[in-house]
């Protein structure tokens, strides 16, 4: 992409190299450790699902059994495979017996390691085939209906009741929405288990469960067939169950997942060691399943000033890009985040916003960037709010953003009504239509405000990445450099779920899924 901003390409390259070193340094830590969530995810991918009579998920029961017996460091797959060879049962049947107290995985005689891995790999490959078929179904829909060239119109539903969510999602799709995001119920990111079944009692959102995913996917496919458009489904792959939700999404054909390396640490006080390990496996799964991830840099600007701290957004985008690449997730699935969050009272704020968005587009040309609407400075004045959203829509179309989360004129008042969404969709479609090629027609003044702003942000981001490279990402977070939020290395929620890997550790899915990304895997 030809730069309209005359960006210093050497500085971009230097920043990317620094981010690569930061991510590789962290990856060495990640590769040495696992977590209870990673192992529960392995259980789910091996076919274990459901809850006991008290509502405890069977994957949690299996992992608790292994943790009590000090076996988790070798990986759940090894002990499940051993149980299959010992009993002749499948993983789901084994989980039920463990739940009933009829079986202890740690007390079974260990079979030959090679035989165990051969056994588990066959089961793992069957799951991989299911996910691959989901991808083929998505591809077939897109071939049949075509895909949208311009920005995807992304709206949220958040009633707490999956059936009411479906009603609202179908209405939004008929009004023109391209992506439906089902907001999670308040606090689910802090649950160290995944709720089960269809739910109707969420607060501020709806529980992320596999059955809820299935129900919404089914409804969106049905309305999509009526409209001859593929409607993408989004949910939240973050918090203490990050990779588990990624697995559920892959099994139910979600298309987009909120999946950031730092969000849970900064904004939910989840332990940084736990989050770093979990984000890797979640991104391996999302990369394999063809899911676009949305990173959370926009959240920095809700706690820090968007003008002063813009460089931290760019630095985090560089880092998220490198973490994603290490997990086999291609650039075309990296919905790196940013936001239209500058104070509208600031003179020339629109120019600064335009500069930031254009810079992101030029530095990450293949990424389906996710652009977030104004929220911090929305006042409840719906008329002014609609104008702020219109300016946000203009920046999107001028700079070729891809995933456009629609602003709501009632932001700061209430959760959107269907009528609010209809007005927001109408606003965006009007601007996108009348300005479709305006970005291709304009250039920016050499040495002007827009160009100088981009240069300033890039230089600060490069300096910050150089600093992070020297002290490491953990120390950077401890110092509160991102979003002005400090977190201690051994503080936060979930640290007790981190386990150092044994030399015999085994997880079949990382190898299988990364091979697929490289094109080495043949699954018929």
From TrEMBL:
<feature type="domain" description="D-Lysine 5,6-aminomutase alpha subunit">
    <location>
        <begin position="5"/>
        <end position="511"/>
    </location>
</feature>
<dbReference type="GO" id="GO:0016853">
    <property type="term" value="F:isomerase activity"/>
</dbReference>
<dbReference type="InterPro" id="IPR016176">
    <property type="entry name" value="Cbl-dep_enz_cat"/>
</dbReference>
<protein>
    <submittedName>
        <fullName>D-lysine 5,6-aminomutase alpha subunit</fullName>
        <ecNumber>5.4.3.4</ecNumber>
    </submittedName>
</protein>
<keyword id="KW-0413">Isomerase</keyword>
<dbReference type="InterPro" id="IPR015130">
    <property type="entry name" value="Lys-AminoMut_A"/>
</dbReference>
<dbReference type="Pfam" id="PF09043">
    <property type="entry name" value="Lys-AminoMut_A"/>
</dbReference>
<dbReference type="GO" id="GO:0031419">
    <property type="term" value="F:cobalamin binding"/>
</dbReference>
<dbReference type="InterPro" id="IPR037086">
    <property type="entry name" value="Lys-AminoMut_asu_sf"/>
</dbReference>
């Amino acid at each position: 992409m030809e730069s309209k901003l005359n960006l210093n390409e050497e500085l971009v390259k230097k920043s990317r190299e620094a981010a690569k070193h930061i991510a590789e340094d962290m990856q060495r830590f990640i590769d040495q450790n696992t977590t209870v969530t990673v192992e529960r995810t392995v259980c789910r991918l091996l076919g274990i699902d459901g809850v006991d009579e008290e509502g405890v998920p069977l994957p949690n029961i299996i992992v608790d059994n292994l943790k009590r017996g000090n076996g988790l460091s070798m990986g759940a797959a090894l002990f499940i495979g051993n149980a299959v060879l010992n009993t002749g049962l499948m993983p789901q049947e084994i989980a039920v017996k463990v739940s009933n107290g009829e079986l202890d995985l740690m007390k079974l005689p260990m079979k030959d390691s090679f035989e165990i891995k051969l056994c588990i790999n066959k089961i793992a490959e069957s799951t991989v085939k299911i996910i691959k078929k989901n991808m083929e179904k998505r591809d077939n829909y897109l071939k049949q209906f075509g895909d949208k060239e311009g920005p995807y119109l992304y709206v949220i539903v958040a009633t707490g009741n999956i059936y009411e969510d479906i009603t609202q999602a179908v209405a939004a799709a008929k009004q023109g929405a391209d992506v439906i995001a089902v907001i999670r119920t308040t606090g689910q990111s802090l649950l160290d288990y995944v709720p089960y079944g269809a739910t109707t009692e969420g607060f501020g959102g709806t529980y992320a469960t596999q059955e809820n995913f299935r129900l919404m996917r089914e409804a969106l496919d049905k309305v999509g067939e009526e409209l001859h458009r593929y409607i993408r489904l989004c949910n939240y792959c973050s918090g203490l169950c990050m990779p588990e939700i990624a697995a559920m999404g892959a099994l139910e054909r979600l298309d987009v997942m909120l999946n950031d390396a730092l969000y849970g640490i900064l904004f939910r006080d989840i332990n940084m060691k736990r989050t770093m390990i979990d984000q890797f496996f979640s991104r391996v799964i999302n990369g394999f399943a063809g899911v676009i991830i949305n990173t959370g840099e926009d959240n920095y600007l809700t706690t820090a000033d968007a003008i002063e701290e813009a460089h931290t957004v760019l630095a985090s985008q560089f880092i998220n890009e490198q973490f994603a690449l290490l997990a086999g997730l291609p650039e075309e699935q990296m919905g790196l985040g940013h936001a239209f969050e500058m104070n509208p009272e600031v003179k020339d704020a629109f120019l600064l916003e335009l500069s930031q968005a254009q810079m992101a587009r030029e530095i990450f040309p293949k990424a389906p960037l996710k652009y977030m609407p104004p929220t911090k400075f929305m006042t409840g004045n719906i008329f002014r709010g609609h104008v702020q959203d219109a300016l946000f829509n203009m920046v999107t179309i001028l700079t070729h953003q891809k995933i456009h989360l629609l602003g709501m004129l009632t932001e700061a008042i209430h959760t959107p009504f269907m009528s609010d969404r209809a007005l927001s969709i109408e606003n965006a479609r009007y601007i996108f239509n009348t300005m479709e090629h305006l970005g291709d027609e304009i250039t920016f003044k050499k040495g002007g405000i827009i160009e100088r702003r981009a240069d300033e942000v890039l230089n600060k981001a490069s300096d910050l990445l150089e600093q992070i490279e020297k002290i490491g990402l953990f120390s950077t977070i401890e110092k509160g450099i991102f979003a002005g939020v400090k977190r201690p290395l051994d503080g936060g929620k979930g640290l007790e779920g981190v386990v150092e890997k044994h030399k015999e550790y085994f997880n079949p899915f990382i190898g299988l899924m990364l091979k697929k990304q490289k094109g080495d895997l043949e699954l018929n």
